[in-house]
Specification:
Radius of gyration: 21 Å
Number of helices: 16
Number of domains: 2
Shape: globular
């Protein structure tokens, strides 16, 4: 398990670093306006992908050992095509991305969705290393291609779109080649694959959809009330702060697998508490480093137009730490078939995001967006904490680190 965790964390470090390099290149070559446009394009792709993942994701991973690959992939491909078509209509009608990019957003979402299906198959086939390698290759190709294309004198966000096509094409070729086409099927396959895929994913995608809006609704509000240039500054601050989730998210994947295979509430409770404390410690270390860096460093790295990053990170930090804890709670609820609590937590956070965002972002700009994010993340995590303690009988003192946590970690990893 230690090898799987270290490989996944290493892959996430590389892909996160590549994402920051995209912002560095865009900040210097395209300015804050280009950063803002790229942020909206990526958000549009993520929104369309959300509907695609209704058929796939964790449900697909579960079904890979139980259904023949040919029978499993057909409904996933068809659903991805339909979702891309509907997504294009929604993105274009509501003008969620800059003019001229709606079709590119839908096409990139479709291609990335097909690649995500292949990667889920790899995970279901326990090909974690191949999954990580393809993700790294895709990120590296994106950065290299964008660095070359952005050097053109008249470069704009189209350079990022062209680089995205190249990166997802390379990942598609690798992921298709890596899949093992014939895998023995365990047990009797279900009668309706599509029905089971949708049923397995409904709660998960409902929570993911609301959580996506918690993370990114502020982008659209900033663009509407403050402009694309200020949105570019906020995307950099948000991306840096969310870097604190790198280890918590990697650990959460392992926690989900462990809890799903652990019998008894007490064992699941102790696992969750241990992973929760490790996640919080790692996230705190990252945000402490970010706080120590002056704004001039961020301006030097991301470009002269990127100013005022440190105050924004300071406002985001309480929310970022809250969501680091939420990673553990969310995967406890998923691993114990209590996804409804993830839906409720995300829903409460979304209510706060809408209310606070509409009140604060027009009034105080980027600071209002950061405060909104912290309030929303905190609200969601407070609900999850209460639900976890009620279900497991835990006490507040159990949330503090103790010697048994260290012994439990050594047993799990070594």
């Amino acid at each position: 398990m230690l090898k799987a965790i270290s490989g996944t964390i290493a892959a996430r470090i590389i892909t996160t670093a590549m994402g920051l390099l995209i912002s560095v290149i865009a900040g210097h070559r395209l300015g804050t306006s280009g950063l803002g446009s790229i942020g909206l394009i990526v958000l549009g792709i993520t929104l369309v992908r959300l509907a695609m993942d209704l058929v796939g994701g964790s449900a697909l991973v579960y079904l890979v050992p139980r259904v023949s690959l040919g029978r499993l992939l057909r409904p996933c491909y068809l659903w991805a095509l339909m979702a891309a078509g509907v997504g294009y209509a929604v993105v274009d009608f509501f003008r969620l991305v800059p003019d001229g990019y709606s079709m590119h957003v839908a096409m990139l979402a479709f291609l990335q969705g097909i690649n995500a299906i292949h990667l889920s198959v790899l995970i279901g086939q326990q090909r974690i290393r191949a999954n990580n390698q393809i993700a790294v290759v895709q990120a590296v190709v994106l950065v290299v291609a964008f660095a070359v294309l952005a050097r053109a004198p008249d470069a704009d966000a189209h350079a990022f779109v062209q680089a995205a096509y190249l990166s997802v094409a390379s990942a598609l070729v690798l992921s298709f080649a890596a899949m093992r086409k014939r895998v023995p099927v365990l047990g009797k396959p279900p009668a309706s694959v599509l029905k089971l895929l949708i049923r397995q994913s409904t709660y998960v995608q409902a929570a993911n959809g609301m959580q996506l809006l918690n993370y990114r609704l502020a982008y659209w509000l900033i663009e509407k009330f403050q402009g694309t240039s200020l949105l570019g500054i906020y995307t950099v601050a948000n991306q840096l702060a969310e870097g604190a989730w790198l280890v918590p998210k990697s650990l959460a994947l392992v926690l989900y697998s462990k809890i799903s295979n652990t019998e008894g509430m007490e064992g699941q409770r102790l696992l969750t508490l241990t992973f929760l404390k490790v996640s919080m410690a790692c996230a705190t270390a990252v945000v402490a480093v970010l706080l120590l860096l002056p704004s001039s460093v961020f301006q030097w790295v991301f470009g002269p137009e990127v100013v005022g990053i440190s105050p924004l990170i300071g406002l985001l930090i309480p929310g970022i730490l809250s969501m680091a804890a939420s990673q553990a709670y969310s995967h406890f609820f998923s691993g114990t078939a209590r996804n409804i609590h993830n839906v409720i937590g995300s829903g409460l956070g979304l209510v706060v995001t809408i209310g606070a965002g509409l009140a604060l972002i027009p009034a105080i700009g980027l600071a209002g967006a950061a405060i909104t994010a912290t309030l929303a993340y905190g609200t969601s995590t407070v609900y999850q904490t209460i639900a976890f303690m009620r279900i497991t009988g835990s006490r507040f003192i159990d949330l503090w680190p103790n010697a048994e946590d260290g012994r439990r970690l050594r047993r799990m990893f070594f």
